[in-house]
Amino acid sequence: MNNNPMVGTKHTVGAKNVSPLPCPTWPNRRSIRLQGYDYSRAGAYFLTVCATNRVCLFGDIANGQMRLNDAGRMAMECWNEIPCHFPDVTLDAFVVMPNHVHGVLMITDTVGAKHTVGAKNVSPLQPGQRPHGTSKTIGSIIRGFKIGVTKWMRTHANVHDVWQRNYYEHVIRNNDELNRVREYIVNNPAQWSLDRENPSVGANDFVGAKNVSPRSERFFAPTMTEWE
Question: Which alpha helices (DSSP H) does 15-119 contain, by range?
Fold first, then answer.
């Protein structure tokens, strides 16, 4: 990121002295990771990373389009640089939203096996067994992404608390599901008024709502992973 033309110049993101907005707690967010699953194995993963307290740090939505500020552009740049640090990772659909990012990562198999989507034929790890390729697990990738954005925010926006500690992940199990996730990501800005990450949207706004696609239980069951 040393080649970033924005580094070394003063930038503001309109996030100084921001009061955190309240956000409802959604009951479907619980820790249900696949026990014994090696998250460095080949496959596709749908990931969501949220700003702390859902503060809108990365821009705003106008006419159904995301308008990135400098912080949002830095978040996009850090995401695009993931393969530079993790060569076995391929980027797929991605969007920066006002207070979160959605993205799909493909992890390729380093031992020559054919690339697969999802967690078919999952082999549980044996007690004491070290997962292959732990340096490229999802947790390591997200940690690096968060650190990159946080460093920039602390230097250029005087914002020190950027991300929630957790992130949400979903193992994509087949190509149909992958296409639905891609469609969800592409349409996310247009759905902002119904997005449960939108701090101005309350739970009652979803009662009786038709054609609500955000967080559709039909294909997206978010799972929370905590790491320090």
Answer: 70-80, 82-85
Query: Model confidence at 109, in pLDDT bands (50, 70, 90)?
Result: low
With cut-offs at 50, 70 and 90, classify the pLDDT of residue 36. low
Given pLDDT bands bounded at 50, 70 and 90, which one contains residue 16? Answer: very low
- The phi and psi torsions of 225 (rounded to 5 degrees) equal -120, 125
Tokens matching residue 186: 């592409």
Q: How many domains does the chain have?
A: 1
Backbone CA torsion sign across 111, 180, 139, 79: positive
Q: Which 3 state secondary structure label does DSSP give 19?
A: coil
Helices (H) and strands (E) counted in the chain, each on its own, are 4, 7
CATH number at residue 69: 3.30.70.1290
For residue 127, what are the CA distances in angstroms to 36, 122, 124?
9, 15, 9
Please name every residue paired with 67 in a beta bridge, in sequence order, or none if there are none: 60
Segments forming the whole domain that contains residue 80? 43-119+136-189
CB-based contact 60:122 (threshold 8 Å):
no
Q: Is residue 104 part of a domain?
A: yes
Per-residue pLDDT reduced to its tens digit, 144-181: 999 999 999 999 999 999 999 888 888 888 888 899 99
Edge-first strand order for the sheet with 43-50 is 89-96, 100-107, 43-50, 167-172, 223-225
Residue 67 belongs to some domain of the structure:
yes
Residue 28 amino acid letter: N
Q: Residue 215 falls within a domain, yes or no? A: no
